[in-house]
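Problem statement: downstream parser choked on a complex file, so we are re-checking the raw output for the zinc ion run. The parser issue turned out to be on our end (a line-ending mismatch), but while we're here, posting the original submission so the record is complete.
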Amino acid sequence: MTPEIIEKINKFTRREFTEEELYVFDLILCDNEIDRDCERFSDGALEKMSTLFIGKTGIFDHNAAAANQNARIYDTELVTDNSRKTKNGEPYRYLKASAYMIRTNENKNLIAEIDGGIKKEVSISCSSAKRICSVCGRDRAREGCEHVKGRLYNGRLCHIILDGVSDAYEWSFVAVPAQVNAGVTKKFTDERDVKSAVAEYSAEDSELRCEIRRLAFFRGGRAAAEAAEVSARGMNTPQLRGLKKAYERIAGAKPAEVQLMPDSKPNNADMYKI
Ligand SMILES: [Zn+2]
């Protein structure tokens, strides 16, 4: 840990912390790849989020009830990987974040887990005012167009480009053993992994449960998230899809409460969860 890093972190803390008291780690918040919903962030959106996420606190979902399970982002970096192309044929770009935790007795097991190289699944939530059609460039948040996302037009996949990001709300970090997590991560999964249909199916269920929990969290905090998790536990895939849609409708109708930024207003912008 360099003195510059410690200085950056100490801007966010009430008192000065020493290197021994701090634990730092990196994570990938989001990228420019077209996701399963046929949506991707614009370069401008990624740049905007690189500033908006600094200082934001994230939670560790798998143990949210425990004390001191929060981490805060102290730095971000937009990274371009020219060796890898997105489905849209562009160089792969991702938003890397560096986060810190204050070492305590309560979080030492969690820190050991992260140190142990377990896979990290990150979810973020932000508001994005524009939904640009990749084929015609119309803003689908304002007007419709005839293009269907997921279809090919002149050999190119029609997708929605999320732009006009005005707020970043939350991030959360699900740390699970790599073999359990294989195929679950919506974005950052290594595409060389070949998964069986069965694995894909249960991965979708896990992801849906995760998203339902997240949407409920932004709606009603931790208690709502836990209640949603319990009700989703016994559901099959179609039921989970339905429940997720219901939560998304609620989120779209009324901007969810902003947990960490009480002064900001979403401005009718839609909530997106990655
Ligand atoms: Zn269009």
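For whoever reads this later: The longest helix spans residues 197-233.
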